[in-house]
Amino acid sequence: MSARVVAVAGLVAIGAVAALVEAARAELGLVVERASGSLQVVDDAKRAGVARIEGLGDLSHASLVYSGDGRFAYVFGRDGGLTKVDLASAKAVARVVQAGNSIGGAISRDGRIVAVANYEPGGVKLFDAETLALLSEIPATYGAEGKRAKVVGIADAPGARFVFSLFEAGEIWIADVADPRRPRVRKLANVGREPYDALITPDGRHYIAGLFGEDGLALVDLANVEAGARRILANYGRGEEKLPVYKMPHLRGWAVAGPYAFLPAIGHHEVLVVERGSWREVARIPAHGQPVFVMARPDGKQVWVNFAFPRNDTVQVIDVERLAVVQTLQPGKTVLHMEFNDAGDEVWISARDDDRVVVYDTATFARVATLPAKSPSGIFFAWRAKRIGM
Amino acid sequence: MSLRVRALLWVAVATVAPAALGDVAPDVARRSELVNLVRQDCGSCHGMTLKGGLGPALTRESLRDKPPGSLAAVILYGRPGTPMPPWGAFVSASEADWIVRRLQEGTLDER
């Protein structure tokens, strides 16, 4: 092949890759590599990593959200770092260290505001999604002494709102950010002891916070905030001894499938099932360990569950119609996260201590690919861009 | 206690202690398991860099004034009423002492 042909072929290839990136954005994703502070850009169509982005600080507990078009990701690091990443160029394009210790964040429905939930100093900060300029701060101050609580379970809600929970205060706050420089905050007190994480239902209607300090969860109807928070599944562990919890469950994700919400029981090796609407318990599904993530396949037919230390080499699949475990898989050492692809026919699972991501076919449960990754934790595909609470 | 007895006692402790510690200190392979446990699993609440998260920081500065015995007891038995669970099923008493010593010295990763 002549040099000219090679050059042309190279250009065509680059052009083709660029076109592919444009067309297949929903198929791109990011894998957090927690120990090295890097992100791997992965392509679901190729079932392969395509680039690595480095220098994101401490990603030991990291999550991210996507811009509305799925081109940019906002990465929330443990060290308070907020990094804006461009998937098209595979580069970090903006970064601020905005707090001492951070847990996660959310992006407004219109894509203009990024909110970060902080442990230290406890509160929420709002940023311009374009520039990462600070717009305002909501200190999570509570009680007579004006202490600050750690903020958990932040979610974007319809009507230019962010909803979040205050761990030590036992409160849920709803911030109206129509004017992001002057957020208006409505506070719901006494929602329950120690809310540790929360989810918003895919329709944006209900916010559910898990409680660590008591059995039960707090539910807020976002169409009727005046009614306050109500307790659901109160006393789910009544009469049973609580087992030690070696890792906090995570509620964020689509733990809503069909007519049910699937929720992790704290201190029990069970997945709790409640009926949406009545919010009554309909089943308890015995599971391999203390659930951490309880994720519904996009079509709502299956729910996949992973577990806390020391039972964290296993993943179980619950059939939503039968409300029973139908499959038990062992993807590798220390499974930290699971993520469905856009179609839901495959699920990507990170096995931290095996330094790999394993891809399963969700119909046959066959292992279809294994990708190398450095100490992988969260996996986030860009299809999340269009979904509430993701 | 007379000076002489105290001196004798000191000599006795000085001779016995290293041997006794040698019996219980974790070997190199186990140390690396323990370091991984502290960084990764304790780290899910205390932060992988131990600067804190939902649980408090476990840095040298933050643990400086805490009595080692009670820190080891917290590892083994947890802190009821808080999210700190008991880890006694996974680490022995002497391993908990070793972890506390390394955390307080800030030398967790040293071999």
Helical content class of chain B: 55-70%
The biggest sheet of chain A, with number of strands, parallel, antiparallel or mixed sense and barrel status, is: 4 strands, antiparallel
Number of strands of chain A: 34
Instruction: Bin the strand percentage of chain B.
Output: under 5%
| Low-pLDDT ranges of chain A | none
Low-confidence stretches of chain B: 5-23
Q: How many independent structural domains of chain B?
A: 1
Proportion in β-strands of chain A = over 45%
CATH top level class name of chain B: Mainly Alpha
- Overall outline of chain A: globular
| Head-to-tail CA distance between termini of chain A | 48 Å
**How many helical elements of chain B?**
5
Please provide the count of β strands of chain B: 0
Mean pLDDT of chain A: 92
The ordered string of helix (H) and strand (E) elements of chain B is: HHHHH
Computed structural class of chain B: mainly alpha
Count interface residues per chain for the largest interface.
A-B, 28 and 18 residues
Cα distance, first to last residue of chain B? Answer: 39 Å
